[in-house]
Amino acid sequence: MYYNSSPIYFIVILAMVVSWLIQWRLRSKFSQYAQIGLQSGLSGRQIAELMLADHGITDVRVISTEGRLTDHYNPADKTVNLSEAVYEERSAAAAAVAAHECGHAVQHATAYSALQFRSAMVPALSAVSKFMPFVLLAGVFMIRTTLIPLGVGIVLFSLTTLFSFVTLPVEFDASKRALAWIDKRGIVTPQEHAMAKDALWWAAMTYVVAALSSLATLLYYVSIFLGSRDRR
């Protein structure tokens, strides 16, 4: 039986287009909300430090990092890394990002299970990512003689897809913690809270699309594997 892979090609292309649109929308939203100053007058750095202090976290540093939308929490050295704009800005966008990244620090401090599972996957993924593309490429080139390399590549790629989906609850939970805290602490007004929530929602959508794109790519390789097997 011949396995029709045409729908998979369409899904992969659609995922790429949607990913680009989400990224464009995210940058647009952050640029828009960065223009609106917080009534509280707090900068991203001050908000991050205050959230960490409120949760009794004293071993995490808040530092500035280069780039745009490069904000992240590093559990290895326990640092909340805020992009230069977020670090200094006093806007709804900066408040949302700073609190979100501190949400990851709170997850780490409270041993949030999804974050622990994702962190446990990192060493294996770091090793796999170095040679996985070459295994997949070799699998495609050798497909007429053997399916083993492509099969191995699919198994390895499935790990990256799993990681993408494990990331989703981690990101959504961090945003939930962030929004609850900035609201309870009075960091933002109701209008600013709505903007912060909207900004974080679009940021979360980038992870959703990334996970779906990874799944689509995995299905693409699976379709090649099944199609070649059925022709034998």
From TrEMBL:
Keyword Transmembrane helix (UniProt): yes
InterPro entries: Zn_peptidase_2
Keywords, sorted A to Z: Membrane, Transmembrane, Transmembrane helix
Pfam families tied to this protein: Zn_peptidase_2 (PF04298)
Transmembrane segment boundaries: 6-22, 134-159, 199-222
Name of the protein in question: Membrane protein
